């Protein structure tokens, strides 16, 4: 054969099937562009200069893109192969062997790879700076306008997608190799037998989905919700596929038995044609539903975190300056030691000369301080067991019931909350965070500690580390701090380390800008080092809100940016699945509608039949996605607390708006794809 024969055949196959190949190539280009951008940003100097988790978040996003690209491109390529099988069958009948067809597929893969990688890398490089500037705007940081190309990101993207295209090619070769010419020629017209035992599939899916929904609404503690979230996600995905595959078949059978509905021109053809492709149809609808749910969960939660980041920051850091000393004995946590540090800080504030050698007019306000003792335990009935030697490390029930207990003196509580509460020696006030505490008294197993609960507090100014903790937390306000804490000081964990942690917190607000506040934080660190021998603490922490703001904005802004990027990819994937579903079914149904037109069916009747078919199944995915989202909301709400976010009304608002926008977009997609289907049929 002449040189260039196979490349010409491959190119003709791509151009003459442009209705199928153009969306596929656009999707490949889009995914390659997104992959390069995420890889570029994860190693960008502007991102690396931001201390925090932003770079790690973008790396995770790049890995998610890689996994999704493999799954989705394999899935969409199956539509192309199914459409091209008839062409390959004709080549086979005309004398081409399967080796010749393999040559065509080789060149199609080469051309597809060159086009996709060429345009994908080009747009990725061109748009990478725009993406970087947008990301820096979101995280409220600065970036230079100098343009650069990350050759490491180019190499990573090219290698990854080249491997994906090779695997897709090998899969196409496999399908052609195990088919004969007749099968290939009639592959488009081959119907599917509805899977046997559909009710078993449907029942199994309903049971699995019910279990997942029960987990979502029954779990109360955020730590348990986080631990079971991914298991619940897998269960929902499996159940969705089972329900759609079985339920769509069952729906068609019910419609066929309804003679008043079935024996109408607009319904008869649509329902009878759907019956014989329901297995594939159900899988496609399930994929659309899963992608829709992923987009809704991701965009609503990341948007909520982004717009609530300042509230989360204030919850994590109650004051502009937050200092904590940790002691290994009650003897060291004395008023004299604490007063020494307090006086040193007061002198620093009066002088106003900070770590950058500049003078600041510091006007501190909202001083707070409090003592606290904390220990971990496990709820066993109505008691808290704090002796870890009697607890199995690998017990799931233990993991679910773990709790952190904070003891706090009544006098510090009254000063903190501007209250005048009184307690008897055996009484306590409690406040719960991320949990419910049902017993009417606080009993510590193995320790002679038993406080009757006088009142459960409705509000309490919990500290930042408690807000940031992922475990359920119980605050116990006691009348005699020293007497309460002393019996716990001998307890040790599995490694022999002391379990009871003693802490003194000291914080205040300032009128300083970010630079001045950061300079004040560093100056206080110098004061702490100066008094270390005199105060004799175990270790300390010193945080300013200004210094950590970039961490929060980097993490929440990065999640928001990644949510936008992945949502664009997932929405594009859903659009492509819907488009291919309509196109492939249009070609399959074309001959049926031609026959119906010959016996008197008008184009108006065809339009009604198309609308009947699309409306019968098209809005099922978005409806079930909405149901998934409703049951996932308690899960999301609890997990959000692990990000120091407790604004449930904002989460409800962003979730509702996200669903409304997505439903509107889904309706537009319906209109566009139904027109494509109609053009093929008519």
Task: Describe, in plain words, how this protein is organized in 3D.
- The structure is a single chain.
- The chain has helices spanning 5-16, 18-42, 45-48, 54-93, 98-138, 151-177, 181-185, 198-218, 222-257, 259-262, 265-275, 278-307, 309-316, 335-351, 396-400, 410-417, 464-468, 481-485, 514-530, 532-535, 545-598, 603-617, 620-641, 648-681; strands spanning 321-327, 365-380, 383-385, 402-409, 427-433, 441-445, 449-456, 473-478, 501-509, 539-544.
- Strands 2-3-6-7-5-8-4 form a 7-stranded mixed β-barrel.
- The two termini are 40 Å apart.
- 66% of the residues lie in helices and 11% in strands.
- With 682 residues, the chain is of the alpha+beta class.
| Rg, Å, rounded | 32 Å
* Biggest beta sheet summary: 7 strands, mixed, barrel
* Strand segment count: 10
Mean pLDDT: 79
Total helix count? 24
Looking at the structure, what is the overall shape?
elongated
Separation, N- and C-terminal Cα atoms: 40 Å
The secondary structure category is alpha+beta
Uncertain ranges: none
Strand content: 5-15%
Question: What is the percent of helical residues?
Answer: 55-70%
What is the strand arrangement across the widest sheet?
A: 2-3-6-7-5-8-4
